[in-house]
Design brief:
Layout lengths: L39 H4 L3 H4 L11 E6 L6 E6 L1 H13 L7 H17 L2 E3 L6 E3 L1
Antiparallel strand pairs: 1-2, 3-4
Helix pairs in contact: 3-4
């Protein structure tokens, strides 16, 4: 990754203009003809080129679920309903500004369950270790 900052901190990408663009944004990188957009729109990074496993995901069936909370560095290829289960868990149990002890225990339990059900695959040294 070279000089790139860790992905869980805010950073400006060199060469990317900050602020709102003027003009026809549909022609800018990351804007799709159907009105959707990709991460490339805001970061100028084509995630599929940097991480080839993303191109293998079945649209609307599989998802990449990344756990970066509290120092974790876990990546899971999961059925599309797993991220929705996690969102539901967080939305129903979050209390106050930090979520509260109970929600964090449930989040840790959610990822522990995923880890127990998953198998580890390794593509090569340049790519992350994935669990499916």
């Amino acid at each position: 990754m070279g000089d790139n900052p860790p992905p869980d901190i805010t950073a400006h990408t060199p060469g990317v203009q900050q602020g709102n663009s003027k003009g026809n944004y549909e022609k800018q990188p990351g804007h799709n003809p159907d009105g959707t957009s990709t991460a490339e729109r805001s970061t100028s990074i084509d995630a599929n080129n940097r991480n080839p496993v993303l191109a293998t995901l079945e649209p609307d069936v599989e998802a990449l679920l990344v756990n970066r909370a509290r120092g974790a560095r876990d990546h899971f290829l999961v059925p599309i309903d797993d991220p929705f289960r996690l969102v539901a868990l967080i939305r129903t149990n979050w209390r106050g500004l930090t979520g509260g002890k109970e929600v964090w225990e449930q989040i840790e339990g959610f990822f522990a369950e995923l880890s127990q059900k998953s198998k580890t695959i390794e593509a090569n040294e340049e790519e992350a270790t994935w669990r499916i």
